[in-house]
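Structure request: ABC transporter, Parafrankia soli.
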Amino acid sequence: MVPHPAGGVGMTAAVALRGVSKVYGRRTAAVTALDDVTLAFVRGTFTAVMGPSGSGKSTLLQCAAGLDRPTAGEVFLDGENLARLSENALTVLRRDRVGFVFQAFNLVPSLTAELNVALPLRLAGRRPRRREVREVLEAVGLADRGRRRPAELSGGQQQRVAIARALVTRPSVLFADEPTGALDSTTGREVLTLLRGLVDRDGQTIVMVTHDPVAASHADRVVFLADGRPAGELRDPTPRTVAARLAGLEPAAEPASRPRPRQRP
Ligand SMILES: Nc1ncnc2c1ncn2[C@@H]1O[C@H](COP(=O)(O)OP(=O)(O)OP(=O)(O)O)[C@@H](O)[C@H]1O
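Returned structure:
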């Protein structure tokens, strides 16, 4: 296990990044999406990642989840250095130890909720037990919707199915990239309450990218990024404290052009 960089007795990281950089493209076309990022996500906590557009949030998630390899630096998941894993081992780790939820629910339209949830187990070559699928659907409040297809569910319910599908392998970390981006504010809040409950009740570790200060306020901690680098963090965030901090990171808006004084005839 990797000690939390900030120290603290018994604080262990589910995921830790050490000196992680990610450069896309080459030479004159190179874009540095992450620049020497060292961060840890403590087990059993809910972290929101925020920052201006293009600050590297999604890239951070992709690298932390082993979906993409950093150009430099190391990522540890449950203390395991991902750089040391072969492509096959990394595929297995992604399948078994990492859950991912996106803004688009990405459910298979022809399959029922139960079958969508069972999919990661089938892909792992396992025969899913009905009970484990039911349990995870119950955990997201959809025990009675298992036989429905995605089109027969609301947007919030579809995102719950996607969350259940991400949880069915009992991953060490659930990564969520704008999970409420496609939902109205009431439904979004229900999904965030669900995520909060997974942390509080089951000790799930969650790392969520969001643009929304209200969504971020459900987390224990908000990590800010600017230009691919960590730009401070907030603990016990509120929508107001998050919005204020975020405003300080956004590029200054163009000054509004002043109205010209009227020419008198
Ligand atoms: N596959 C890629 N190829 C080239 N450049 C990329 C690629 N993916 C991301 N980038 C660039 O890397 C930088 C960081 O992108 P990233 O998507 O991580 O930012 P973000 O903070 O998630 O942005 P947003 O809030 O707009 O979704 C941006 O400048 C982006 O254009």
